[in-house]
Amino acid sequence: PVKSGVVARARIRDRYGNTHWPRVEPADPEQVFAAGASVLVIEVRAGGVLAVTAADSRLTEHRAS
């Protein structure tokens, strides 16, 4: 899970199909994300940690390949 004070790994697939595993933590210290939750990167913090928030469901709809 992703929660404040605990840096977790996230799987991000870029537009070219490459998978990346950056370190992430919630932008809002009150947020907690379960494993497998869809998040949106909103900021790069010190040390390259990405601050994330909940992704709107319209952003996470799967497109046909």
Would you mind describing this structure in some detail?
The chain is an all-beta fold. Helices cover 0% and strands 38% of the residues. The chain is built from no helices and eight strands. It has strands spanning 2-3, 8-9, 12-13, 19-20, 23-26, 32-33, 39-44, 50-54. A four-stranded mixed beta sheet has the order 2-5-8-7, with no helix packed on it. A two-stranded antiparallel ribbon has the order 1-6. It is globular. The mean pLDDT is 88.
Concise overview:
Helix content is 0%, strand content 38%.
What key attributes describe this structure?
65 residues, 38% strand, globular
Broad structural category:
mainly beta
End-to-end gap: 29 Å
Low-pLDDT segments? none
Strand arrangement, major sheet: 2-5-8-7
Question: What is the strand and helix layout of this fold?
Answer:
Elements: E1 2-3, E2 8-9, E3 12-13, E4 19-20, E5 23-26, E6 32-33, E7 39-44, E8 50-54
Parallel strand pairs: 5-8
Antiparallel strand pairs: 1-6, 2-5, 3-4, 7-8
